[in-house]
Specification:
heterodimer; A: about 110 residues; mainly beta; seven-stranded mixed β-sheet; four-stranded antiparallel β-sheet; B: about 110 residues; five-stranded antiparallel β-sheet; 11 strands; globular
Chain lengths: ~110, ~110
């Protein structure tokens, strides 16, 4: 059963703590993306990766970090530098990073600050 | 600043009616357009993609693109209560790149 998985579904962060959100895909897609969604706002791009061992900052990368050591995996770390991390985080992938490539989304992780 | 605009709604339509959702975008060079449906608390799922001017039909859904007027719309025929969701418009405004700008979404309510 092909698809994108994200874990955990809910994540709680304490002040000063780094947390890591998992994203795995078995679609054999080259490109992967992380978005943040806040209530009443559109999706905003945090980071993207077109190939293994390469990634680029999106529009709101400050306070976040990523790695792409395997084609299937693109974890996102929310660092203590991110002062307002409460949001719904969505991972997506596409076959390539071309203009007409459709992005498919995982189920999302909801991050809450304690 | 590149923008994608949608009316936030809610747009209420009776069951069986046609729901019409609209999206305007700011950049004339935009080439790719996508409609996603998002149920409350869930992730977006793709409904339609459209790249050329005109209409594209898929079942009860029709996407309409008018690049000269810079708008894209989604029509849902025979609306069902299960269509009640937020519909997101996404536009690729940088040809040759992966980057998509998402609208804030229109909330649709189909009344039984």
């Amino acid at each position: 059963d092909g698809g994108i998985t994200q874990s955990p579904k809910y994540l709680f962060r304490k002040e000063g703590q780094n947390v890591t959100l998992s994203c795995e895909q078995n679609l054999n897609h080259d490109a992967m993306y992380w978005y943040r969604q806040d209530p009443g706002q559109g999706l905003r791009l945090i980071y993207y990766s077109q190939i293994v061992n390469d990634f680029q900052k999106g529009d709101i990368a400050e306070g976040y970090s990523v790695s792409r050591e395997k084609k299937e995996s693109f974890p996102l770390t929310v660092t203590s530098a991110q002062k307002n991390p409460t949001a719904f985080y969505l991972c997506a992938s596409s076959r390539t990073s071309g203009t007409q490539e459709t992005q498919y989304f995982g189920p999302g992780t909801r991050l809450l600050v304690l | 600043q590149k923008e994608v605009e949608q009316n936030s709604g809610p747009l209420s339509v009776p069951e069986g009616a046609i729901a019409s959702l609209n999206c305007t975008y700011s950049d004339r060079v935009s080439q790719s357009f996508f409609w996603y449906r998002q149920y409350s608390g869930k992730s977006p799922e793709l409904i339609m993609s459209i790249y050329s001017n005109g209409d594209k039909e898929d079942g009860r859904f029709t996407a309409q693109l008018n690049k000269a007027s810079q708008y894209v719309s989604l029509l849902i025929r025979d609306s069902q209560p299960s269509d009640s969701a937020t519909y997101l418009c996404a536009v690729n405004m940088q040809p040759g790149t992966y980057k998509y700008i998402f609208g804030t979404g229109t909330r649709l309510k189909v009344l039984a």
